[in-house]
Structures are given as structure tokens and as C-alpha cells.
From TrEMBL:
Its EC number is 3.4.11.2. Residues 531-846 form the Peptidase M1 alanyl aminopeptidase C-terminal domain. CDD domains: M1_APN. Residues 102-165 form the Aminopeptidase N-like N-terminal domain. Residues 437-528 form the Peptidase M1 alanyl aminopeptidase Ig-like fold domain. This is Aminopeptidase N. It catalyses: Release of an N-terminal amino acid, Xaa-|-Yaa- from a peptide, amide or arylamide. Xaa is preferably Ala, but may be most amino acids including Pro (slow action). When a terminal hydrophobic residue is followed by a prolyl residue, the two may be released as an intact Xaa-Pro dipeptide. InterPro entries: Aminopeptidase_N-like_N, Aminopeptidase_N-like_N_sf, PepN_Ig-like_sf, Peptidase_M1, Peptidase_M1_dom, Peptidase_M1_pepN, Peptidase_M1_pepN_C, Peptidase_M1_pepN_C_sf. Residues 218-429 form the Peptidase M1 membrane alanine aminopeptidase domain. The keyword NAD does not apply. GO terms for molecular function: aminopeptidase activity. The keyword Protein transport does not apply.
């Protein structure tokens, strides 16, 4: 294997420096003769001058075989070739550039460009991978049509667009390089049909390795539902005669929206009841939809430059969340989305990696596929919709699709459509794209003499490179209940635009405030609401999100007070949780969410926010005690609850059954604290689906069952995706003092493939995210272990190494000893030759 040469160039690229290319490419004609070590890529680029200047093409790791313009080989004096560029001097106004390059896909372990996975050729070109295939203007504002011819002794040869002859593909839709894709291999398809609302017959294929055909049905179903939904809700129809999805085992991210040829991490396509959990099914549905929705938000209308990434990603995440909410329970989906946002994006926004939704500079764009760009980007779209209303949102989207189809756009283009369609000035709203950091909204209220007064104050915290921020426009949805729990004022949206706003009302009695309903803005609330009011909201709020939020606030408060003051767990809280758990009128999925306690990382951040240094070991222990207290309170009800949540009949991934299994999983965890694993063992032995099996497996691991790990392995050792779950669970559910050693031992196994990102993430992520008390072992062994692996991975797959390094980003929360250990590990890393990806991350984390 050839190591990826460390690229330490730390050139900073700025949004402000954007300039269009002087010479553009309008058509790309590619011929690829595939070979593991000597693939020949012949490219014919139709070029046209559009302004003054030299033409600089990108090209990395390419061996040049030939170079010609309009059929004439180019003399050495007319071009300059470097490791990363091909500069052409004195080109005509219109010409054909012909290059032949040689590359070695088999040696490409960075999984960017053209690479091989289990004998199959595949590509990943976003963001800047096309330059590893051939010389080209590898930037999103250069949009070209493509003809591709693939030569290989393999049965299936795929590229973008429509197949015009075996192995020959034509894509009529102009696209940037990052949407190019090619796949060649021994694959089998599950095929279906869809007829669009415009009457176009579309063949749908999901291509997998032979043997995996039995696991494609759910993804196909999700694809058809996505196509129909985008027509109905956004008026967007598909535009080619074929839509191909390919499942690949070695993939850096979740999936990729290449035009007409989506490539997926096999984890997000393949599912059967026996091998995938309910969570996997939900993720597959959401990701299939996400990639499909990109066909309009990303592909037909793309980004002018990579700073505009949120233009396609924030909008497409918002759309996939809307879709999932329509397919499933909307409140449960919203709670899940907010949990995810807080866990990943709030954490990012609170630390050294904080950046605006539209960053203004970067060294390596791959480091900006972040929770802020994706998830906060989606929240910004949600706020926009709230502010302009449903009709205004529909009108703005319609104008955007009509005006910008076929273009590479900016956030300014997007917002202008909403300003024009609705007449609303969005200049203050635009701050959401440029000011980093999670705004803090503090809420104070008073009641006296028949007057209720509500004051909201906002501040936006300092973040790296940004201080003294202006007030944002924050849509705060709120309503009032009376103390008996009846709603006295239904939801209204207050647009907080100033640093401080006060509302005053005449009311007969003191109300109970329900604020930030539906989590109407991605902000943190500072609000000392009384227990009584929270209990009222938990029992009665008409807004399901805030009903859950009230319970969450109570639980978090109990845990924090238990950690800082040793406060006992009181009956009022336990009774309230029990009441929700046993309320048959509520959706089981909601009850499961209400019973789940805040995560260890969430508690660590909350302690830090309160000025207390978090101790991961103490947090872990406190959370276990809280769980045991809930189990004690519910003890006599647990077996019945388990029975009530039975799902008779064969497994279906439907949300209603999944909700019951989710509640059963929480109940099983509670039961395990009481019976040492008896119920979990019975569930494990009797499970007929992976959801129940995994729920029981993790309980048994935590209970110290001596056999279950081997038993699971014996049954599933041939299944890569199932074994990823096993690797992760072994670490995440290990006793914290043993977690690092277990992780270390797992990486020494022959089936630990360091070139497979899923396997690597199972073990390293299982430790850093799944077992915080283990990762933060006071002896520093977790930090050492991660740093060692970052260095190893960086040599072959810099992108994955850089992503995993974010586990260190919250280091300044911790005590002086832990901080010293982490900064020493990071500083040692910094002293090594690192990739551009990892060195940018380490530098930013150290600050
Ligand atoms: N655009 C894809 C995600 C993606 C991004 C980068 C990749 O390689 C660096 C791969 C995939 C999406 O949003 O699904
Ligand atoms: Zn996306």
C-alpha cells in the first residue's frame, strides 16, 4: 500500500476571495480503462474562455501519459505541471483539451477519487476528489455535461445519467465534478419502477454484492416514498430514465448524491429484520430520502463555492426531517432531531471548532461537513419557514427552483427569493449564517395585580475569531397554561429581534409558561422554571415537544443536583416519570424518550455551563444510580409493561411497532438493574429481530454476562454490518475502567480492518462517544489510544482521522490533569508529519 503523502500545506481559503474561472469547461468526455494498478483515464474537455487569465486545472496523484490541445500535443513551454495543478498558458478562446492520466485505484485507501472496495471500483468525488481521477476545474461553479465510457472485464458498469450503450453513459444535466460517479463490479440489482407526475417512466435499481439482495426492500420502498413525497410537497419530479443506488462497504461518510447514481455506505442501504435495528431502518429511510432530495437541492441547483455548502446541506437535511416527520410521528421525530442537534451541534458550537453555518475560511473543506453546516443549517431553514409562514416558504422555494435551475448559487440568492416572494427584509435573519455560537435566551417572568410580565434577553457567546455579536432574529413559539394544566393562550410566535423584549398581559391568575415550543429556534434557554410548573407541563402541555422537554429538564436538574450536592432522587420526580411511563394514552416511542435520562456528555456540558468541572466517572455513577432509582419506583410495573409492549406477529419496521420495542428496551434496561440480567437473557434467547437482540445484548454486557459476547460472535461472525454493532457494543457497554483495554484488544483482532471506516468508527467511536467515562479514564490511556490511532489512520485515510479527532474538542471542560494529558497527546500529534486534514483539526482544537 502506498501511503497518502502527508500534505501539510495550510493555505487558508477565504470566501471573500471568490472569483469565477477565466476559462470554463462545458462538456466532459471520459474514457476509463479500469485496472487496479494502472487505470487509464482519457479526458476530452470542451473549454471556453469567459474572462482574462490563465487556465489552472486541478490534478493530484496523476501520472501524465499525454496532453494535447485540439489534437496537437502540447509543447513543454505551453504548460506547467505540479503535484496538484496543470497550468495552461495562452489557450485559444474555444478548444478541446485532451489528457491521458494513469492512476492506481487499488492503492487508494483514502477512499476519495477512484478506489476499490471488495473487488469493486467506485468513486467519491465530493468535495475535491475528481482531481484524483483526471485534470479538471474541480470546483462546483463549473458545470458540464458528461459522456463516460467504461472499459473493464466486469459485468456491471455504471456512471451518471442514462445508459446509451453497454458501459456508455450520457448525462444531459450540467453538473459540477463533485457529482461525477462511476461504479464497476460484480453486482446484482433489485429493480423497481416509478412513474413521475410528469409521466416519465423511471427504472430504480439498488445494486449490491451477490448475497445481499435480500436486504434491499426497505431502501427501495423508502426511495419510492421519497420520490412521491418530493412531487407532492415540493413539486419536484425526477429527471432521468434511471435512478441507481449502489451499496459500498468501504465509505467515509453515510452516502453521496451523485447525479442519477447515488453511492451509499452499505450500512445505510442493507436491512433485514434479523440484521438491522429499528434505528437502522429509520436511518436508511432518512438517508435514502436525503440523497434523493439532493437531486433538486444540490444537483439541479448547486453551490457556487464550498462556503455555500449549507445551501444544499441545511436545506436537504430540513427536507429529509420533514419527510421523516410525515412518515412517522412528527413529535418523536422532532425530539430525536433536537437530541441530535444538542449532542453534536451545541457541543461543536460551544468549543474550539465553533464556526458559522456559512464558514468564511477553511484549510480543508472536508473538515466542514459538520453538524453546524448540516443540522444547524437545517434549523435555520426551519426558522425561515416559521418567520415567513408556510405559504411564504412555498412561494420562496418555488421562485428559487424556477429562477436558479441549472445554476451554482449562494445563500444570498436563496434569501433573495424569500425576500421577493414575501416582501420581508431578511438582513437581520442572515446573521444566522455568519455568527457562530448558540445564542443564550434568558427568560424571566413575574405576576402581580392581574398583570403577567415576560422578559426575554438574548446574548450570542464569543467563539473563535468572533466577539461582540449583534442580536439575532429568534422566533420564540410560546403559549400559556393555567396551574390546573388547561391551555389559556395557544401558541404564538414572538420574533425576538432586540437584545431584550418584554411582553405584558392582563391575566386573572398566574400562568404556567410553555416557551420555545417545538424547539422553535436553536438556542439555549436560561430559565429557572419551578418544579411545580415543569410537572404541570410534563402532564398537560399541548405542545408534545415541550411536554418531553419539561420531563427532560426535571431529570437533568435531579442528576445535576445529585452530582454536585449529593441530593437524593425525590418522589415527585420519580412519580412524574412513572406516570408518563404508564400512561397508555401516550405514544410508546414518546414514553421511551421521556424515560431516557440525559446523556453523560450532555451532563458534562451542563456542569461546565454551570461553572462546575465535570468528572466523567462521577457522572457515569450518578446516572446509573438515577436509573436504579427509576427502576425501583417502577419495579412492580416493569414486567407488565414489558408484556403490554409485545408486538405480536412478524417484525415490521413501522414506527408504531418500533415505538413499542423502544419502550421495551428501556424497560429491559431498568429490569436489568434489578434482576442482574434474567429478563435480558430471556429476551436475548427469544429474540427474532436485531432490535430486541441488541437491546438485550447491551444489557447483558453491562450486567457482566460471561457468555453473551462469544455467543453473539459465534452467530454473526460472517456478517460485517452486524459485527460492527458487536465491536461497538463491546466498547460502549464495557465497565469504564476496562473500556480502553477492550478497545485495544479489539483492534488487534484479524477482523479489525483499519481500512474500513465503519469498523474503525465502531471501536474508536464506541469508546469516545459511547463510553465517555472510559475514554476519560484519569490515567490518560483513552487519550493515548485515540492519538495512536489517529496517527496510524492519518497515513491512509486523513478524512476519517480528522473526523475522529473531534472527540478531543471538549477538552477544556475537564480538570487540569485531564487537560494536561489531552493537550500533551495533541501536541505530540502536532509534532508528527500530519495530513492537511488532521493538522488543521489538531491546530483548531488546541486553539
Ligand atoms: N453530500 C453527502 C455527504 C458527503 C460529503 C462528503 C463526502 O466525502 C468527503 C461524502 C459524502 C451528503 O450530504 O449526503
Ligand atoms: Zn447532503
Amino acid at each position: 500500500m502506498r501511503d497518502a503523502a502527508p500534505d501539510q500545506s495550510q493555505t487558508v481559503i477565504h470566501l471573500a476571495d471568490y472569483a469565477p474561472v477565466p476559462v470554463t469547461v462545458t462538456h466532459v468526455d471520459l474514457h476509463l480503462r479500469l485496472d487496479p494498478l494502472a487505470t487509464e483515464v482519457s479526458a476530452r474537455l470542451t473549454c471556453r474562455r469567459q474572462g482574462p487569465g490563465v487556465m489552472v486545472l486541478n490534478g493530484e496523484g496523476l501520472d501524465m501519459v499525454s496532453l494535447a490541445i485540439d489534437g496537437v500535443p502540447l509543447e513543454a513551454s505551453r504548460y506547467m505541471l505540479t503535484d496538484t495543478t496543470l497550468t495552461l498558458h495562452d489557450v485559444p478562446d474555444a478548444f478541446l483539451l485532451e489528457t491521458v492520466a494513469r492512476i492506481a485505484p487499488q492503492e487508494n485507501k483514502a477512499l476519495e477519487g477512484l478506489y476499490m472496495s471488495n473487488g469493486m471500483y467506485c468513486t467519491q468525488c465530493e468535495a475535491e476528489g475528481f482531481r484524483k481521477i483526471t485534470w479538471m476545474l474541480d470546483r462546483p461553479d463549473v458545470m458540464a455535461t458528461y459522456d463516460v465510457e467504461i472499459e473493464a472485464d466486469l459485468p456491471v458498469l455504471l456512471s451518471n445519467g442514462d445508459e446509451v450503450a453497454p458501459g456508455k453513459w450520457h448525462d444531459p444535466w450540467p453538473k459540477p465534478t463533485y457529482l461525477f460517479a462511476l461504479v464497476a463490479g460484480n453486482l446484482v440489482a433489485t429493480t423497481d419502477q416509478f412513474t413521475t407526475c410528469e409521466g416519465r417512466a423511471v427504472t430504480l435499481n439498488i445494486w449490491v454484492r451477490p448475497g445481499d439482495e435480500g436486504r434491499t426492500a426497505y431502501a427501495m420502498d423508502a426511495l419510492k416514498r421519497s420520490m412521491a413525497w418530493d412531487e407532492t410537497v415540493y413539486g419536484r419530479a425526477y429527471d432521468l430514465s434511471v435512478f441507481n443506488i449502489v451499496a459500498v462497504d468501504d465509505f467515509n461518510m453515510g452516502a453521496m448524491e451523485n447525479k442519477g447514481l447515488n453511492i451509499f455506505n452499505s450500512k445505510y442501504v442493507l436491512a433485514s429484520p434479523d440484521t438491522a435495528t429499528d434505528t437502522d431502518f429509520a436511518l436508511i429511510e432518512g438517508i435514502v430520502a436525503h440523497e434523493y432530495f439532493h437531486n433538486w437541492t444540490g444537483n439541479r441547483i448547486t453551490c457556487r463555492d464550498w462556503f455555500q455548502l449549507c445551501l444544499k446541506e441545511g436545506l436537504t437535511v430540513f427536507r429529509d426531517q420533514q419527510f421523516s416527520a410525515d412518515m412517522r410521528s412528527a413529535p418523536v421525530q422532532r425530539i430525536g432531531d433536537v437530541l441530535q442537534l444538542r449532542a453534536r451541534q451545541f457541543r461543536e458550537d460551544a468549543g474550539p471548532l465553533a464556526h458559522p453555518v456559512r464558514p468564511e475560511s477553511f484549510v480543508e473543506i472536508n473538515n466542514f461537513y459538520t453538524a453546524t453546516v448540516y443540522e444547524k443549517g437545517a434549523e435555520v431553514i426551519g426558522m425561515l419557514r416559521r418567520l415567513v409562514g408556510d405559504a411564504g416558504y412555498a412561494a420562496g422555494c418555488a421562485l428559487y427552483f424556477e429562477r436558479h435551475d441549472g445554476q451554482a448559487c449562494t445563500i444570498e440568492d436563496w434569501l433573495a427569493c424569500f425576500e421577493e416572494a414575501t416582501g420581508r427584509d431578511l438582513s437581520q435573519f442572515k446573521l444566522w449564517y455568519s455568527q457562530a455560537g448558540t445564542p443564550l435566551v434568558s427568560v424571566t417572568e413575574s405576576y402581580g395585580d392581574g398583570t403577567y410580565r415576560l422578559t426575554l434577553r438574548q446574548t450570542v457567546p464569543d467563539t473563535p475569531g468572533q466577539t461582540d455579536k449583534a442580536p439575532m432574529v429568534i422566533p420564540v413559539a410560546w403559549g400559556l397554561l393555567n396551574t390546573a394544566g388547561d391551555e389559556v393562550r395557544p401558541t404564538e410566535v414572538l420574533e425576538l429581534t432586540e437584545a431584550e423584549t418584554t411582553l405584558t398581559f392582563d391575566l386573572d391568575a398566574r400562568p404556567v409558561l410553555s416557551v420555545l415550543r417545538g424547539f422553535s429556534a436553536p438556542v439555549r434557554l436560561e430559565y429557572q422554571q419551578s418544579d411545580t410548573d415543569r410537572l404541570t407541563l410534563l402532564a398537560h402541555d399541548t405542545d408534545p415537544f415541550n411536554r418531553w422537554e419539561a420531563g427532560r429538564a426535571l431529570s437533568k436538574d435531579r442528576l445535576l443536583r445529585h452530582i454536585t450536592e449529593d441530593a437524593p432522587f425525590d418522589a415527585a420526580w420519580l412519580d412524574a416519570l412513572a406516570a408518563v411511563a404508564l400512561n397508555d394514552g401516550l405514544d410508546p416511542a414518546f414514553r421511551a424518550l421521556a424515560l431516557a435520562l440525559p446523556s453523560e456528555d450532555d451532563l458534562a456540558q451542563s456542569l461546565h455551563d454551570a461553572g462546575v468541572v465535570p468528572d466523567p466517572t462521577a457522572i457515569h455513577a450518578a446516572r446509573k444510580r438515577a436509573f436504579a432509582a427509576v427502576a425501583d419506583r417502577l419495579a412492580t410495573d416493569l414486567p407488565r409493561l414489558m408484556d403490554d409492549m409485545a408486538t405480536p406477529g412478524p417484525y415490521t419496521p413501522e414506527a408504531s411497532d418500533a415505538g413499542k420495542r423502544a419502550l421495551r428496551a428501556v424497560v429491559l434496561r431498568l429490569l436489568t438493574t434489578q434482576d442482574g440480567g434474567g429478563a435480558a437473557r430471556a429476551t436475548y434467547d427469544g429474540a427474532d429481530n436485531m432490535t430486541d437482540r441488541m437491546a438485550a445484548f447491551t444489557c447483558l454486557l453491562e450486567a457482566g454476562d460471561p457468555n453473551v459476547a462469544d455467543q453473539f460472535e459465534a452467530q454473526w461472525s460472517d456478517d460485517r454490518l452486524v459485527m460492527d454493532k458487536w465491536f461497538m457494543a463491546r466498547v460502549a457497554h464495557a465497565e469504564p475502567t476496562r473500556a480502553v483495554q477492550i478497545a485495544r484488544d479489539l483492534t488487534a483482532r484479524p477482523d479489525f480492518d483499519a481500512n474500513n471506516p465503519n469498523r474503525v468508527r465502531s471501536v474508536l467511536g464506541g469508546l469516545t462517544a459511547g463510553n465517555p467515562a472510559g475514554f476519560h479514564n484519569p490515567d490518560g490511556s483513552g487519550y493515548e489510544f485515540l492519538a495512536e490511532w489517529l496517527l496510524i489512520l492519518d497515513k491512509s485515510n486523513p478524512q476519517t482521522a480528522a473526523r475522529l479527532s473531534t472527540a478531543f474538542d471538549a477538552w477544556r471542560r475537564y480538570d487540569a490533569d485531564r487537560q494536561a494529558l489531552i493537550s500533551a497527546a495533541l501536541t505530540r500529534l502536532q509534532g508528527q508529519p500530519l495530513s492537511r486534514d488532521l493538522s488543521e483539526m489538531v491546530g483548531r482544537i488546541l486553539g
